[in-house]
Amino acid sequence: MRTTREDVGAVRAFNRFYTGVIGVLGEGIVRSPYSLTEARVIFELAQHEDSEVLALRRALDLDAGYLSRMLARFEADGIVARERAPGDARRQIVRLTPRGREVFAMLDERSVAEIRELLDGLAPADRGRLLAAMRTVQEVLGERPHRDGFVLRSLRPGDLGWVVERNGALYDVECGWDRTYEALVASVVADYVSGHEPERENAWIAESGGERLGAVFCVRREDDVAQLRLLHVEPEARGTGVGAALVAECVDFAAAAGYAEIMLWTTALQRPAHRLYERAGFVLEEREPPVERFGDVVRGQVWRKKL
């Protein structure tokens, strides 16, 4: 899916809005004589006893001449001290002076106060939504942390709504399906809750570090047949073993619950899922004729596995 002019406009509008909220466009950040870039340099210097100018420039992605002029001003104001590195006159070291540490403490204190004031003015629910959205922006645009592993857990409050929302969003983006598919997912989830048989039905969420990565449901199809339903894995977690683990958990539960067989319905589009099913021992037994469904032409498939 190509990025549209409207997408670009939305990002630019958000940038203008948020820089206004945090005061970046004013004469000085947090009511100080320092610009945002100058404050970033001071904050970075405060993290170390001393810093190489070259490393500082690379860390903040600043023009060499611009940074040099800034440090010269800071030095004239008594905020930083510069010297040549011992044993290598080509390298320059810079550090905050005691006065510079005082400036950093002032900037840090005012920044904390302004953020606290911003958050304190929000209702608890809105504050949670804002912080979650900020974490999402950072995760999507930043470097993703390496996943050290994941766990499969039972359902918790909020998980059912998340399953419906994520299925609707992912199948819209990846398959172009309309809202009737999300409505189907909602009905499956509602049926699971209203007619739940704890001994014969279950559902699992794959999670890592508090982040939900995927889900699957095992429900009663017939007295001796279980059905695997609503398997989905978040795009960033695919290829990590999450999907295989969810399928295996569902199959193991069905066997332990006394079913003789487990089946699932999918479509010809879900080829990556087909490989998961094949590796788990499922066999494609039925190819349905194409029908118009979910705003698309869907070719259904039924897969089965003896337990």
Describe this structure in words.
The structure is a single chain. By secondary structure, the chain is of the alpha+beta class. Helix content is about 50%, strand content about 25%. The protein contains ten helices and twelve strands. The chain has a seven-stranded mixed sheet with strand order 4-5-6-7-8-12-9, sandwiched between helices. Strands 1-3-2 form a three-stranded antiparallel sheet. A hairpin with a 2-residue loop joins strand 10 (about 290-295) and strand 11. It is elongated and about 85 Å long. The two termini are about 40 Å apart.
Highlighted features:
elongated, seven-stranded mixed sheet, 48% helix, 10 helices, alpha+beta, 307 residues
Question: What's the layout of helices and strands?
Answer:
Elements: H1 5-21, H2 36-46, E1 51-52, H3 53-60, H4 64-76, E2 80-85, E3 88-96, H5 98-120, H6 124-141, E4 151-153, H7 159-175, H8 179-194, E5 202-208, E6 211-222, E7 225-233, H9 242-256, E8 261-267, H10 271-279, E9 283-287, E10 291-293, E11 296-298, E12 300-306
Parallel strand pairs: 7-8
Antiparallel strand pairs: 1-3, 2-3, 4-5, 5-6, 6-7, 8-12, 9-12, 10-11
Helix content: 40-55%
Radius of gyration of CA atoms, rounded to a whole number: 28 Å
**How does the overall form come out from the CA principal axes?**
elongated
Q: Stretches where pLDDT falls below 50 for ≥5 residues?
A: none
Give the total of beta strands: 12
Order of helices and strands: HHEHHEEHHEHHEEEHEHEEEE
Structural class: alpha+beta
Beta-strand content bin: 15-25%
**What does the oligomeric state look like here?**
single chain
